[in-house]
Amino acid sequence: MIWNNRNINSYGGDRMRNGTSFNYMAAIILLDAVCLLPICVSAANLRFGTNGQFKILQVADMHFANGKSTRCLDVLRSQYASCSDLNTTAFIRRMIHAEKPDLIVFTGDNIYGKDCDDPAKSMDAAFAPAIESSIPWVAVLGNHDQEGSLSRERVMKHIVGLKNTLSKVNPPDVNFIDGFGNYNLEVRGVENSELGNKSVLNLYLLDSGDYSTVPFISGYGWIKPSQQLWYQRKSEKLQRAYKDGPVPQKKAAPGIAYFHIPLPEYARFHPSDFTGVKQESIGSAHVNSGFFTTLIETGDVKAVFTGHDHVNDFCGKLHGIRLCYGGGFGYHAYGKAGWSRRARVVVVSLDKTAKGGWGDVKSVKTWKRLDDQSLTTIDSQVLWTKTVGHR
Hints:
The chain is of the alpha/beta class and about 400 residues long. It has helices spanning about 5-10, 25-35, 75-80, 85-100, 120-125, 130-135, 150-160, 225-245, 290-300; strands at about 15, 20-25, 55-60, 105, 135-140, 185-190, 200-205, 255-260, 275, 300-305, 315-320, 320-325, 340-350, 360-370, 375-385. The chain contains nine helices and 15 strands.
């Protein structure tokens, strides 16, 4: 959706390019209602709601720069004059209001460092809608975040210092790990349920790097052995805790992984094997570091979500794991004129127990929303369901 920046700044009854009226101030008031929810932004308080669901909003490739003065890329000629970074901000706010997620995940290239006059201020503005919502949010880095005046480490440290974020620079209990922004989140069951004190969903966030540091290998970076070892050990620890008492479980709790650069395995799909579209080549590293094999062997991750390739938005299944793109979100990122920017939503649902309470995870579903007049929902699909006898 292309908003007129003059109207956005005036907070009046905004007029969209098709002539439909939208009251932006009313939307802000509604968003403030979301902000008033009694949410304590703490990793220890991440848990499923009383409806047995946990919803995640993925925002991929904002490419935020300097706000109103930053022009959009790859929009229709009629849209260009009024389009800027503020359109990205408006899209995030609309998504937060429409979906009311339990967690927002930014999967890299949050800012476009080369075009940022002040990367810190750009990050403040880019993440402002999430911060203002009081909804917990996290971020990982892409290949463009550090291309301004701040190093990769300083970019991640700035993110960690912002309000309402659960992001971490790196695991506190690990002496060495490659990259910045490797951490995990545990999502507990419904409060006062039999699994209310167990992590029934585990989220893994990793730094997929920026560019190859090996002189004779060009292209993008990859997830290194130190990161894979950390993931394996963390997963094994979580699996042991889940299978032990009280309320021991037979199988591992499902996991979801988020990072920026897609794995080479994303190129394995035929168009008939996925839901969504592939409109550009897979921008993975030129070497395969084996992380997909690590995921298979470790066994808990059911779905992987990346960004990086803005006009790809598909989900495919390979050896039992879903490999998905978020789809291009930001207006200062390359895209395709006439092809709406989009966001991905994931909803994880719990199973009902014999006594009518909430148990372990039953299913993982997803859909995408387009930044059009009605935030159109497309490509709804089930990514994973619990097999019989899971517990």
